[in-house]
């Protein structure tokens, strides 16, 4: 079954292009910079010092120009409002914290869809091992990776040095490559003994849980992918399919019952597979169960959480677990939006009525989910006052460092579009660049605002302070096209490929609120 699933993954296309352009707008007259700020204040959009503090980037240019009385209009070349990408990048670099030296390089798939990669990605974060990443496309793997990893498959890791000996004088300076997810899990335990041990293969309960998961995975794949794929010649009767479905449902029920039998302390809310502590079996389970949770209701009309309270509780524990929630987890929209593509590739043929119905149902639900982007939900992925600033900064960083690719993707024509072709792209327009810099400025400001501690607060501040006139640099005649671009980018944002699920809530929300305001101009 592993070979079948790897083949399934290897034909998934890349979703995001990497080329783009970087248009900029420059204000060359002092009077324009000063007038812009005065217009904003006089029209009542910013009426207090508190509100000015919300968006300092928008006022920095005019303030700087006004304060320099000896400089003439003919000699000043002031930056545009909002700031240029170069200015935003410089600001971002100043905000960067020192990072720890990486001890491991993780080689994983580009899109963040490989479940075996997800296991290792999650374990590195759970163990607190500093790492860097090399993303490997599942199609057209580069020659250097084929030479590095004998199987040419992902994941793989490069351990930078041997950490078995705590005595630095005896520590070996060696680098070694490890592949196959289970071997990698063991190698991480062996190489970093001071971190929490994850593979408890000397524990009977752990081994029993692994075997139960193997049974569940086998039953699931035999049913869910029984007749999937254009080259699958397997013919199953209705009785065969029903039998496989029942085996799958029994395996899910077995897991739910087993979770309910695990001994837990009365005062401990943690609900991991073996008790209060996250272990390797949780990392093994979550990638497949996460996909089934969101996609089976669309493809097989099965809700794996229905009438399974213990499994639901386990999911709640995982979504509260920082190493998973804050980067590795996907979200309902991402798994829904990509499901129609999976169906087209592996559904057994678009000519089948049931496949057509599933694709239409998937696209409809995905579109419905986009309508809620403006309503940022703190509970969606446990956003809290302790994590909001970092999450907002993550969203800002992704936008600023990837703006060229984002601009190209949201304006690509039909021939360039590789996936999600049902999402309408915008026409190429320098106003889109301005709106994105505006969004980046807002995110940078909010990330440093100590009074903004929740997604709800972010939504309220943006909604109450952004008005039509605040977008004075955007040509109102192009507002509809710019709005379309903002919504396209929000809809194309996929977790965990592009950013964490919590950051995606903020990122999509800011873009959608800007689009709402632009729609109100006409």
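Sequence proposed for the structure above (522 residues):
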């Amino acid at each position: 079954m592993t070979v079948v699933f790897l083949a399934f993954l290897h034909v998934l296309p890349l979703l995001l292009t990497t080329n783009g352009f970087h248009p900029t707008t420059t204000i060359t007259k002092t009077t324009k910079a000063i007038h812009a700020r005065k217009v904003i204040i006089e029209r009542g959009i910013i009426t207090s010092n508190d509100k000015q503090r919300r968006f300092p980037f928008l006022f920095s240019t005019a303030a700087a120009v006004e304060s320099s009385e000896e400089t003439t209009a003919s000699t000043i070349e002031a930056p545009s409002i909002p700031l240029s990408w170069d200015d935003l990048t410089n600001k971002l670099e100043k905000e960067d914290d020192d990072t720890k030296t990486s001890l491991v390089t993780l080689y994983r798939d580009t899109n963040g869809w490989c479940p075996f990669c997800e296991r290792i990605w999650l374990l590195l974060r759970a163990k607190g091992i500093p790492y860097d990443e090399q993303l490997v496309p599942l199609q057209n793997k580069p020659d250097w990776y084929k030479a590095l990893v004998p199987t040419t498959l992902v994941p793989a890791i490069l351990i930078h040095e041997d950490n078995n000996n705590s005595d630095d004088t005896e520590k070996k300076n060696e680098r070694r490559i490890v592949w196959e997810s289970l071997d990698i899990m063991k190698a991480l335990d062996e190489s970093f003994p001071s971190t929490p041990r994850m593979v408890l293969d000397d524990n009977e309960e752990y081994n029993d849980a692994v075997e139960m998961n193997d049974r569940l995975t086998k039953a699931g794949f035999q049913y869910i992918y029984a007749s999937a794929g254009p080259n699958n010649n397997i013919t199953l009767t209705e009785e065969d399919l029903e039998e496989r479905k029942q085996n799958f449902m029994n395996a899910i029920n077995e897991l739910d019952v087993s979770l309910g039998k695990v001994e837990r302390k009365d005062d401990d809310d943690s609900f991991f597979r073996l008790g209060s502590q996250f272990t390797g079996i949780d990392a093994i389970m979550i990638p497949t169960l996460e996909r089934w949770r969101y996609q089976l209701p669309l493809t097989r009309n099965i809700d794996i959480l229905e009438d399974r309270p213990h499994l639901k509780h386990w999911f709640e524990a995982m979504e509260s677990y920082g190493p998973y929630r804050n980067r590795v987890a996907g979200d309902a929209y991402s798994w829904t939006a990509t499901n129609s593509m999976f169906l087209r590739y592996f559904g057994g043929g678009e000519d089948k009525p049931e496949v057509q119905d599933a694709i239409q149902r998937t696209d409809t639900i995905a579109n419905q989910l986009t309508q809620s982007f403006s309503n940022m939900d703190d509970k969606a992925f446990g956003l809290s006052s302790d994590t909001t600033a970092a999450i907002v900064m993550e969203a800002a960083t992704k936008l600023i460092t990837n703006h060229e690719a984002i601009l190209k993707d949201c304006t690509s024509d039909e021939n360039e579009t590789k996936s999600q072709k049902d999402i309408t792209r915008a026409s190429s327009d320098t106003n889109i660049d301005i709106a994105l810099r505006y969004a980046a400025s807002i995110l940078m400001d909010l990330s440093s605002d100590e009074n903004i501690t929740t997604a709800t607060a972010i939504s309220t501040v943006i909604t109450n302070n952004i008005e039509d006139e605040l977008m004075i640099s955007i040509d109102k005649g192009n507002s509809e096209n710019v709005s379309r671009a903002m919504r396209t980018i929000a809809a194309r944002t996929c977790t965990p490929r592009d950013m964490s699920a919590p950051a995606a809530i903020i990122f999509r929300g800011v873009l959608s609120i800007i689009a709402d305001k632009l729609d109100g101009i006409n």
